[in-house]
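pls ignore typos typing on phone
zinc ion + seq
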Amino acid sequence: MAISSTSGRTLLRGGRVLDPATGRDETADIAIADGRIAAIGAGLTGTDAEVIDVAGALVVPGLVDLHTHAYWGGTVLGVDGDQLGPASGVTTWVDCGSSGAANFEGFLRHVITPARVRILPFVHLSYIGLTPIGRLVNPVGELSDWRFADLRALRQLMEQHGALIAGVKLRASSDAIGANGPVVLPLAREAADELGVPLMVHVGNAPPTLDEVLAHLREGDILTHIYNGSVGGCILDANGRVRPAVREAKTRGIRFDVGHGAGSLSFAVAERAMEQGILPDAISSDLHAFNVNGPVYSLPHVMAKFLAMGMSLHEVLRLTTVAPAEVLGRRDLGRLATGGEADVAVFRLEPDESELRDSAGHARKGRFRFDNLVTICRGERLDRRPSA
Ligand SMILES: [Zn+2]
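k done
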């Protein structure tokens, strides 16, 4: 039951406050004022506050989705974070290479700046980013011609907007860029080094092979689509054993991101890898226009799949809040801290044994689903909008 207020103050009353960053898991209230968390504790009172009764619900940090495509309107595959965020609890959308140097400015001006959710962009090595991805009969562009890897343009972008760029993105698989992976991998390495940001590389069908990709990654870089079942890009060998280069990459501090996507989460690969100790550093969706109606749907839907594979609730929440924030070097995000920006998501955890499907259509029996009740970003409660 909500009591409307225009004071900019909100009181979330009586929820199960669970914050993996601190280990807090208790019934408490959260008071929000001026965009920040004013207090967390029992029996808080909120004069002039909008009081939201969240008794029995799970109150967690706003989710951080480390792999999305949020350049809505500027790329065919972009989704609208402001439309989907309020129904999913995702307050931080890491956009993975939708824009390149040529169209970063449009992304910034028309989408990132006006958005009520927080969008953190990884810039694509390709000058034109992911604008060609969509409905072309013959996929061309991106880096199917390696000349789109224009380091000079990225240097200019860095001079203008360096502080806003969270990383460099490269899709290194044959279905994305033909045979050019081995050619552009060193260029992506060089770009990330020059910009001083992490490099995120998508793996899939070879070329390049996973081992070739890993040879170009360093501590703090991100490998995405870690549980894909492709040929040449899978972290398991033909016998289902984790490849030695993968263990070595983990030891070297390379971060492992799920990036479910339309074709990159295999339950079988994930289960075999996790049994052998290869856990993700982030659970992310790779949400875009061609998987939002299945098999991905949303980050909470992907989280339910990890619950279905036996991961604990705490671990699923850690890997969608503080863990991806740490991958980004953003210790201000993914946590509920008094004085910090108020990103908060409220879910009802509902028992649900419906079948959940991976990218290949294989099913696992669900355990729970996350129904988002409230999403607050930077202190603002995001309203739900009808579909565009
Ligand atoms: Zn992606």
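Residues 98 and 130 are 5 Å apart (CA to CA). The longest strand covers residues 9-19. more later
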